[in-house]
Amino acid sequence: GHVQHLRPFNAMTKAELSGIYPIEQRPAAGFQTVSADSLDSLALHLSVIGIAILIGFLGKQYLIGLEHVISNGTTSIFKSFPLFPLCMLGGLVLQILLQRVITNPPIDHQLMQRIAGTALDFLVVAAIATIRLEVIAKGLVPFVLIIIAGTLWNIFCVVWLAPRLLKIDWFERAIAEMGQSMGVTATGLLLLRVVDPENRSSAQAAFGYKQLLHEPFMGGGIWTSTAIILFIHYGAWVVFTISIAAIVIWLLVWQFFIRDLAN
Length: 263
Hints:
By secondary structure, the protein is mainly alpha-helical. It has helices spanning 14-18, 41-71, 84-101, 109-129, 133-138, 140-165, 170-182, 185-195, 203-214, 222-234, 236-262.
């Protein structure tokens, strides 16, 4: 099939099908990077993640305060701005600082992967548990129509667009985008984990870097905020036209600028 980093079921052992490693084949979850006498390595890695989140949180508070001063309190766009991309920027800033200040940063990649996997599991469970079924029941008909249209569009993107736009690990990257488009970020990451459980492809890194551009505009950002206002004042066709125009523009950018680089 199209999946490059996952073996078919008929080629898997009983242990792989059960999802439990045999005792003699269990891989290491990570390596300790500091002496346990001073600080536990897991606590250190969790602290680093906490600092990255703190940087993102303080950045958001600064943007909220700056917006309040500039608009004199008349707008509140940044209050609904997602914290996720700012935390990613915080992690990037922290990584650069650690690499410049410390010759051998005490950060283990495998241990960070395990923390990320744990956080993803809790994120998926929380996203499913917070679905409000009564809201879906009230608007069942339009909800079903949106599901049908969105599903057809996403299938088209995965089957036709993705192989042409993405040259490396196209299926893994496309399935993550499909999951996010049909649900939330957690859905995309969950599907990616199904087809690439060991994160051997470039899909997770590509997905994360894409979020830096996607979240400020689409994921609760500028377009998400303005689309509702445009819909109320000008109707659905204006929003639909702008959306189609954005798709066409990005396809043209790929055709004339990115395609040659990818090849």
